[in-house]
């Protein structure tokens, strides 16, 4: 199943028909209904290295998830959004330590 649009433009290729579009839509809708449609996502993982003192390290990991999981705070659609959330988390942790 090939691409129906010209990459990066959102314009339809000149040889694409409505039937092609409906077939591709049907394919993805079927996957979604069967909960088999997966997308690349990113999550922040906290590794407790020293449970007694509370020291932990955070890292961003790539994962495959169902699209509806993006509603939750722990999943991000891009690495950049996950990195921003990680910075915010680290800043919050620093403030909490100072308090």
SSE diagram, text form:
Elements (H helix, E strand, L loop, with lengths): L17 H16 L5 E12 L4 E11 L9 E2 L2 H20 L1
3D architecture notes:
The chain has 99 residues and is α+β, with helices and mostly antiparallel strands. The protein contains 2 helices and 3 strands; from the N terminus they run H-E-E-E-H. It has a 3-stranded antiparallel β-sheet with strand order 2-1-3. The longest helix is centred in the last third of the chain and has 20 residues. The termini are far apart. The relative contact order is 0.12.
Which keywords apply here?
3 strands; 99 residues; 2 helices; three-stranded antiparallel β-sheet; 25% strand; elongated; alpha+beta
Strand content: 25-35%
Indicate the structural class. Answer: alpha+beta
Quote the average pLDDT: 91
Radius of gyration: 20 Å
Distance between the termini: 56 Å
Q: Strand sequence of the main sheet, in spatial order?
A: 2-1-3
Helix share, percent: 25-40%
The stretches of 5 or more residues where confidence is low (pLDDT under 50) are: none
Total strands: the figure is 3
- Major sheet: size, sense and barrel closure? 3 strands, antiparallel
| Number of separate helices | 2
Shape: elongated
Order of helices and strands: HEEEH
């Amino acid at each position: 199943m090939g691409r129906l649009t010209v990459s990066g433009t959102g314009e339809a290729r000149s040889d694409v028909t409505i039937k092609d579009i409906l077939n591709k839509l049907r394919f993805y809708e079927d996957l979604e209904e069967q909960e088999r449609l997966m997308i690349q996502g990113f999550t922040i993982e906290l590794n407790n290295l020293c449970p007694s003192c509370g020291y932990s390290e955070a890292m961003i990991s790539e994962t495959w998830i169902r699209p509806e999981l993006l509603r939750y705070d722990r999943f991000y659609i891009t690495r950049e959004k996950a990195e921003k959330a990680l910075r915010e988390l680290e800043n919050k942790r620093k403030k909490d330590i100072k308090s």
